[in-house]
Write a structure and sequence with these properties.
Length: about 170
């Protein structure tokens, strides 16, 4: 029983420590910030970014991005080194014509919007660091769901793409 409780305590402590470790890495000035990683991926890889995740793997900052190329109907999963943006891994697979991620990428292209621009608009009143962002559509609303990290912890919010505003009903902490 003690072993189970100790394991549970360690697991919870690691989950709590991860955001503070990520925050200290963002603030150390020696790593590529999320906005720069996103801009680099947009400039150097085909497709529209539809998801971004900052995480620590084996003590190192990594960025995972999902890009969808509507023209080729492919989805690529990129892993970038958080210190310099170097591509660590890339996996690409084909999409069916009715794939939800394909519809999201087409929506960005039709609106002539970029993921990086949506992130900037969504975070204009935030002083935190982007930890995660994902495009989604639900109930006829196209939105960007974000997870922002600051000295108080992680906070989630949603940004309405069509009306270019934060969705108050979907903002939660």
């Amino acid at each position: 029983m003690r072993l189970i409780l100790a394991t549970l305590w360690l697991w919870c402590a690691a989950a709590i420590a991860a955001p503070s470790q990520l925050l200290s890495i963002f603030e150390d000035g020696q790593h590529l910030l999320p906005a720069a990683a996103i801009a680099s991926a947009e400039a150097n890889h085909l497709g529209e970014i539809i998801e971004f995740i900052a995480e620590i793997n084996d003590g190192k900052l990594q960025y995972r991005l999902t890009l969808v190329d509507p023209l080729r109907r492919t989805q690529s999963e990129l892993t970038l080194d958080g210190s310099d943006g170097k591509l660590l891994d890339k996996q690409t697979h084909s999409l069916t014509k009715d794939a939800p991620t394909l519809a999201l990428a087409l929506m960005l292209q039709q609106r002539q919007q970029r993921f990086s621009t949506l992130i900037q608009l969504a975070l204009v009143h935030s002083n935190g660091y982007l930890q995660q962002a994902e495009l989604d559509q639900d109930l006829g609303i196209s939105y960007l769901e974000l997870k922002v990290l600051d000295e108080h912890g992680s906070h989630k919010l949603a940004y309405d793409i069509e009306h270019q505003r934060q969705l108050p009903l979907l903002k939660w902490d």
